[in-house]
Amino acid sequence: MMDPNNCGRPAPGLRAFRKDFRGKAITVRGPVEPAALGRVLMHEHLHSDCYDWERQALVTEERPISAERRALLMGEAVPFLRRCNEHGCHAYVDVTPAPWRAWPTFMAEAAAAAELHIVACTGFYCEMNDGEYWVKKPEDKIWPLVREAPVEQLADLCIREIVEGMHGTGIRAGAIKLGGRNAELSELEKKAFRAGARAQRATGVHITTHCTQQGAETGQLALLDSEGVDLGRCVIGHTAGQLMDPGTRQTCLEWMRRGANFLPTNLKINRERGPEEWRPLVEAVHEVFAAGLGAHLGFGLDWAFVSESGPFGPCKFMPPPPYLYMFTEALPAFRKLGLTAAEEEAIMRANPQRIIPVQ
Ligand SMILES: [Zn+2]
Asked: What is the mean pLDDT of residues 173-180?
């Protein structure tokens, strides 16, 4: 654990890390040049195993993957990740934080099999509300470590996972996931954000957040700003709603002028009604580009193999095909609504290639 009295003194290896990896994207198969990422899905999950429904228990520890779980993901996730290459997409950011991620060596195995780069996350998920998904008792609202550990220890965990690797494997996290459940951050979420902010400043990787509620973007960015984080290193996730609402959109534009990046996700096209409900998002994208802020957008699907609402398996909240849906359904529908080739290219390629590498 980092000695709180030594705060500010670089962890062992930190200086060499920043020197060796500056300008490189940290993937589970090692550092790569930004151009190798191609187009990038900025918010996906290979394995988000938060709850053990058989034992009725929160997952609080990461373990090597089981044979059964491995077979499921190699059969149902990897082939679709692999096909993303056909669309110029060679990378995705895996935004599952500890302790619900795939075991690091499996992430590397999946990346090799899919011939795709995976940028893994360290960091902490948000504090759930009573009764949401798996939460039947208050202690299951957040990873117990976030409740129990001081901010220095949480920051140190993130730094070690980025600089040295996860679980002693030498496989590094290349981004920091943070989250807020509601419009205002809870006290525990604020502690997690402070820890993530310190790890960001120490390592130079980017922060990516869970931010579904209107107004939450301001709370998250204000806290990160107060901790001295360069807002250009922050990606505020699940923010399609904020951008589509004309009022909140102005708030987002203000934050973009200060450097922050916004990431619409869950771009599900309704089978019967078609893509029309997404027109306001495409119009918001035009407005962002017209304001000269087009460098501050990314897209993700939030496709997941997950156990939040039942035993681990493919998510129900996004339609098949996993991950590939961005290229076969979402982007073609947005193009019909007027998203331009130049906008799409900036959002999918140039912006991620600028945001992901260590700075
Ligand atoms: Zn997600």
From this structure: 98
